[in-house]
Amino acid sequence: MSAVFEYALRLGDDALVLGHRLSQWIGFAPVLEEELALGNIALDNLDLAQAALSLAGEVEGAGRDADALAYFRDDAGFRNALLVEQPDHDFAWTVARQALFAAFALPNYRALAKSAEPRLAAIGAKAAREAGYHARHARTWVMRLGDGTSESHRRMQTAFEELFPYLGELLEADAVTRELATAGIAPDPSAFAAEAHAEIEGLLRGATLTRPDPGAFQPRGGRSGRHSEHLSRMLAEMQVLARAHPGAKW
Amino acid sequence: MSAETQFALWEVFVQEKTGAPHTHVGSVHAADAELALQNARDTFARRDKLVSIWVVESERIVASKSEHAAEMFEPGPAKIYRHPRFYRPANPKKSK
User: Fold this and answer.
1) How far is A99 from chain B (nearest CA, A)?
2) B39/A40 CB distance under 8 A
3) Residue of A nearest to B41 (CA)
4) pTM for this structure?
5) Buried b / exposed e across A82-113, counting CB within 10 Å, b at 16+?
6) Which site among A33, A35, A137 would you substitute to test the B interface, given the most B Cβ atoms closer than 10 Å to its Cβ?
7) Between residues B34 and B67, which one has the greater pLDDT?
8) What distance in Å separates the CA atoms of residue B96 and residue B94, rounded to the nearest whole number?
9) What is this model's ipTM?
């Protein structure tokens, strides 16, 4: 399997799974304006997923398009990082996950915009513009909830305790990213690991939150298809319609 | 929803291109100015391209009262000498 195919799947699956998670707030968000914000961010992610998975399908050359990849792979075929599939126990989990993902995604997209592969560069450039706003949205809420009431502070701290360990996987290099970094096609995420950690540390300090222990156990496996049960439950809901009616059109 | 459970109301004005006036487009609820700006962006800048957004707390706007409408607005149409309609256009063909 080519490294570009693997990489495009990672890029697309991170965005697809995160986008779907965010879309699950529709109808349940705390206020109408926030529901629109989360919906907008979800749609930006789905747009990125469509572009990246289309590219993956082209590179693969087996006749699979973005829909085939999104709806007809099982969880073991997904290459998203474990962070993005984590469920939303409350709104604090959502914004903590958004902030942690942005700490990786924003420098990643910016570097990808300089890719020697023009289709990846185009995806990176567009995603970087959008992710700048996603990061700002997440930071705004982390600051207000962390430095808010004792209840909002407690929930925000809990969400970071639970989700912070997943940042490690996003910032790891492996054979795929090393090969692509050498060819100038995609960035090595370990190159901006220090920047991402500093970003989160600054955010947590500003929000009067305590940084969880960075030396604690860090779950990984998403990039090789070993996922938590949360992904299969999410996919069951996301894929059921497409699988029940293959080829259905609006 | 009662007033205690709602965030403050903010009026939203958007500008479609540089130099054009900011136009009132609606309102959003938000806890503070920064969130009001973000909510305005998410609510009103979703589809159209904009260059600027203003938000202002609704209670900061001083509005005329409808019971004063008569003395506030009556003079306009009734006083024709306030309208520049007694001048002959220099070039009638061009003006419509």
Assistant:
1) 16
2) no
3) A37
4) 0.88
5) bbbbbebeebbbbbbbbbbbbbbbbbbbbbbb
6) A33
7) B34
8) 7
9) 0.74
